[in-house]
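Lecture 7, part 2: worked example. A protein chain together with protoporphyrin IX containing FE.
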Amino acid sequence: MRDLSATRAHYTSSNAQPAEGVKVWDVLIRMFHWSLVILFFTAYLSEDSQETVHFYAGYGVAFLIVFRLLWGFIGTRHARFRNFVTSFSDVKSYLKSLLSQRAKHYSGHNPAGGWMVVTLLLTLGLLSVSGLLMAAGEGSGPLTNFYTAGHWLFAESWLEPVHEFSANFMISLIVIHVAGVVVSSVLHKENLIKAMLTGKKKH
Ligand code: HEM
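Predicted complex, written out as structure tokens:
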């Protein structure tokens, strides 16, 4: 017969939630997230003064984005795109529920958060691709072998404005992203920043 005492010890008596929380973010997602934060800001802040640092931090960001795109298809439950990219009507009703102060709780990303993740990843993708194409023109990075002098794809005339726009757009997205994390943490009375460190949410 199964020993239920061990199982029971995992639950609080009041609400039958696992006392130690629910595992939501796997270790690779957490490593991805905090490495991305460090590498993105390193690249952003070194842009004017430290070209080598800027290039290597940028390659790191590009590598992380490739990993995250793959993990979105083959990763753990809450990492998969199909589990958090929802319809716009879901986003609308989630945002409405925030106003009514009865916000629906999601273990993974909520519908608005899910689309924010997609926007962050797409912008980081644009930032990485434009950066890698420019670096190739300077004989650096993984795309060097594909570099063709004079080809429009490697023309700085469009790469530079795209790279600069996506970097600045990222800053606005990060402000909204962190504000969303704080608002959601307050509304649901759970520390989402801690969850991105430990991998666990209350429920
Ligand atoms: C330092 C401030 C930051 C904090 C406190 C923070 C916190 C968080 C938290 C709590 C989540 C999970 C949200 C949820 O529960 O649904 C998350 C997800 C995410 N954050 Fe941040 N974040 C920060 C900065 C950034 C930056 C600078 C970037 C991009 C450069 C970023 C990109 C992302 C991405 C892509 C995800 C989705 C994770 C995934 O599913 O792969 N975050 N962040």
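The helical segments are 4-8, 27-46, 51-74, 88-99, 111-137, 156-187, 192-198. The domain at 24-201 is CATH 1.20.950.20 (Fumarate Reductase Cytochrome B subunit). Keep this in mind for problem set question 3.
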